[in-house]
Design brief:
Length: about 150
């Protein structure tokens, strides 16, 4: 049986899923927090949060019987938006702050890559390739000069 933390509460009309709430919360923390210690710890241990996101997504697909649906129909647009915002929020922590926090930047970069690889199984691949393209665009030759 699945862990209770990943359970989706039934009966709430249009309730957000665990993975959507987690993606929004991480994005908010990365964008608005002035607590560099907390952000650095979040980046360093990002594997845990991406693992929780992936497990929640898989459980959602199974419990909602969406696993056999076409990939573009499995997750709502609001979750696609939340993931896109998360990727955009991570970019400056990898590109700009790399010299300041190299270990944390490497960790979040690897964790995000592993998560996106898993998303290719769960989600619309066109959307995932858009995320990859947006992320890779941040690593222009100009950014390597710094």
């Amino acid at each position: 049986d699945a862990l209770p933390i990943f359970r989706i509460e039934r009966g709430l009309a249009q309730a957000q899923t665990t993975h959507e709430i987690l993606a929004i919360a991480i994005t908010t923390m990365l964008k608005q927090s002035a607590d560099f210690f907390a952000i650095n710890k979040l980046l360093k241990y990002s594997w845990f949060f991406f693992e929780a996101l992936a497990k929640s997504m898989a459980l959602y697909l199974l419990e909602e019987n969406k696993i056999k649906m076409p990939r573009p129909q499995r997750f709502p647009e609001s979750f696609h938006h939340a993931l896109h915002c998360l990727v955009l929020a991570i970019i400056p922590h990898v590109t700009i702050r790399y010299s300041e926090i190299p270990e944390e930047s490497r960790n979040v970069n690897f964790s995000l890559a592993s998560f996106i690889k898993r998303c290719l199984t769960f989600m619309d691949r066109g959307f995932i390739f858009t995320l990859i393209n947006d992320y890779m665009s941040a690593f222009s030759p100009r950014s390597e000069e710094h």
